[in-house]
Amino acid sequence: MGTFVKSDRQPCRILGIDPGLNITGYGVIELDSSGRIGTGRVRLIEAGVIRSRAKAPIEDRLKELFEGVQEVIEQHCPTDMALEQLFSHYERPRTAILMGHARGVICLAAGLANIPVTHYEPTRVKRMMTGNGRAPKHQMQLAVKAQLGLAAAPEPADVADALAIALCHQATVGELQ
């Protein structure tokens, strides 16, 4: 696969996203100066959440999410996006449909910015980070803290999940090189 450095020699940046209609976690990591994904040398650029108004109509909430993702993309110029895949066994089908809407506008924002999107199942991300595909949220937060050398665990858990997704992409693509 080669290196992942933009043509102007800027390092590769991965935007990890934990999608949600109310709260979407995001995390931007940057690879070491060699530009090689999978080297294990990453640094945190920014992490946070995009919130929508819970009582607003669905079209307004999706617009807020789309604009929030666009803002993160414009501000940090990621070269890759890693996005959590939908669960295949939702107990509430309506939740799956709403999550599909959220993922759709996130993918649209990436597509408009010409950013390739890779999708990861939550169990795969958890297994990669902790060795346990069913790891609880606090364990994921501690794993992200350790992997990025942070002083404190990322809060809220949506942020830790987004960073874990970005780190999973970093490790996975590195395996393919």
Describe the structure.
The protein has 177 residues and is α/β, with parallel strands linked by helices. The protein has one domain (13-176): Nucleotidyltransferase, domain 5, CATH 3.30.420. Helices cover 45% and strands 19% of the residues. The chain contains five helices and five strands; from the N terminus they run βββαβαβααα. The protein has helices spanning 58-76, 93-112, 122-130, 137-148, 157-176; strands at residues 13-18, 23-31, 42-51, 80-84, 117-120. Strands 3-2-1-4-5 form a five-stranded mixed β-sheet. A hairpin with a 4-residue loop joins β1 and β2 (23-31). α1 (58-76) runs parallel beside α2, α3 crosses α5 and α4 (137-148) packs across α5 (157-176). The longest helix has 20 residues, at 93-112. The chain is globular, with a radius of gyration of 15 Å.
CATH class: Alpha Beta
Radius of gyration from CA coordinates: 15 Å
What is the makeup of the main sheet? 5 strands, mixed
* Number of strand segments: 5
- Please give the domain count: 1
Helix-strand pattern:
EEEHEHEHHH
Helix segment tally = 5
Strand order of the largest sheet: 3-2-1-4-5
User: Strand share of the residues?
Assistant: 15-25%
Low-confidence stretches: 1-7
